[in-house]
Amino acid sequence: MDNTLLIQLTNRKAAELLRQLEALNLIKVLKENISPAKGKLSEKYKGFITKEEGQELNDHTNQMRSEWNNI
């Protein structure tokens, strides 16, 4: 049987259970502490707001920055 699964542990007790299963030769742990691939934030939020909303947000941010600099 050649099935590979990627799982995320949500409880520390689960890691111990996996070690026990490995000791019984029921599973084989290939890698530990694998962090999810991090993509670009621009890709993550692409299409989240419209171009018009983005421009309004950018204009508002620039206005707030200029007001802050005038203090």
Q: Topology of this protein?
A:
Blueprint: H1 12-23, H2 41-44, H3 51-69
Describe the structure.
The protein has helices spanning about 10-25, 40-45, 50-70. The chain is mostly helical and about 70 residues long. The radius of gyration is 24 Å and the shape is elongated. It starts with 11 loop residues before the first helix and ends with a helix. The model has no long low-confidence stretch (mean pLDDT about 85).
- Reading the helices and strands in chain order gives HHH
Report the total helices.
Answer: 3
Shape: elongated
Which structural class is indicated by helix and strand composition? Answer: mainly alpha
* Beta content: under 5%
- Point out poorly predicted stretches: none
Kindly state the percentage of residues in helix.
40-55%
Euclidean distance between termini CA atoms? 69 Å
- Mean pLDDT over the full residue set: 87
Features:
71 residues; mainly alpha; 3 helices; 0% strand; elongated
Give a quick precis of the structure.
The protein contains three helices and no strands. With 71 residues, it is mainly alpha-helical.
